[in-house]
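Page header: ASSEMBLY MODEL / two components / 553 residues total.
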Amino acid sequence: MYLQRAQEFFAFQYDFVAHALGASVLVGVVCGLVGSFLVLRGFSLMGDAIGHATLPGVAAAFLVVGHQHPAALLTGALVSAVIAAFTVGVFSRGPRVRSDAAIGIVLSVFFGIGIVLLAFIQTSATGMQAGLTQFLFGNAAAITGPQLQVLAVIGVVLCVLIGLHYRPLALLVFDEGFARSVGIKTTRLEVGLLAALSVAVVISIQAVGVILVAAMLIIPPSTGRFLAGRLPGVIAWSMSLGGLSGALGAFISYVFEGVATGPAMVLVATAFFGLALVFGPRGGLVWQVRLPGARRSREAL
Amino acid sequence: MTVSAMEVKGLTLSYDDTAVVEEVSFAIQPGQLVGVVGPNGAGKSTLIKAIVGAMKPDAGSILLSGDPAADKLSALTYVPQRGAVDWDFPITAGEVVRQGRFQSVGLLRRFAAEDRDAVATAMKSVAITDLADRQIGALSGGQQQRVFLARALAQGGDIFVMDEPFAGVDAATESAIVDVLRALRDEGKTVIVVHHDLATVCDYFDHLILLNRKIIASGPTREVFTAENLRQTYGGQVAIFTDDGAEAIGAG
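Prediction written out in full:
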């Protein structure tokens, strides 16, 4: 039976299979790119906060519009993502709240509000068929052709914008003080990076869900660091393994009915991470055990 | 009267409403090797950050050759503290040096022959040419510092500002760096160095700035480097070593 469904998947009999595949690959590639800068900047958890923070926006937009209008829901998601990012910034500015605490506060409060709104919607008459819970774990198969086109255009524009700013972004994440000394407006650039993060999260949540979108931002770049020694290589690995995880995740989610796309993608991405962690040429565990030099230095400590 | 290479007037800098540097004023003539010396927490790095435009002053101004520093950022070249960056970052020594050209090359333009030459010359002058493809994390402390210096040389500029370039480097690297700084000075550049080792101050610097949140003294090293000034700077908790041997200052 699984074999039969696998054959169906590759035959692309149904449009929704192609859409699911496209949307999942898009998520992997875009998050792989944005996530690379995020992880290297030490902002990984910001992706987690912004992912969770989109939920109240989705729910509020549904309450306002009254039905599942994709553009409205994603606009709501973007608004609450931006508010969340801004709030983290304000909280962590003072001396009392460190940024990890600020991120924790914002993540849980926004997600809590989202869950309450969701429960409220579920009990209302129209809410029963709303299917908003699919935003929690992602359902790539629900994405229509026209929706996918819009998401793809946004994703491509985002990638191009990041590509245009590659040099300043690379300087920002490596050496902020030096970046400022050569006239780069680092505050503006950082706001831009967070905006890019918010957009990447918003175009991803339908396929991967608000809870696990952070994984697609963090895991592929972390995998890439074990595979390449230079930033362009890390980004290339991150984007390709992100895309591949998306594709395999969509496939698994189709073959095993009931498995949401999000968790499937994340498990595939994690499998790649595990392989890289052990066998990766840049600091993989296997090489550390074998190299006598590495063992000596550990004994010296 | 010649225009100062750098003139700092009434500069106050603070983090979270706590002033770290208060009403600092000094002037530096062109073609000098300048040491900035003071205890930990004296605001040396903060002052350096403000000079290179990485931090906004609460009050005061910084003039470079008579113009506001903000308008002349390209004349300034910054060498951050080695601890300021993540040395596990996925980047090679050669790529770090290439960053020195980003300002003139811009967002997207490819490196021209002139840019590649500047990078190659810079790496050669601090003897790291053969390390170009090496991961920065695999370099020794001294080699890392040379990479930072090479990036600054590739960038060029009239005023070089360095935050503790001698911290944690071996003697060979220290003397190699000093040679490069002297060569820059002899070309007419101004070089400002945050420094910690009082024993080498007289040997290295033409001009000395003693800083402990305020300017204690600023002027030719021979005039400024006195027991009384050092006692004021360090609050009587320092032993200095002069040519005559060790001379303890204060009772600690």
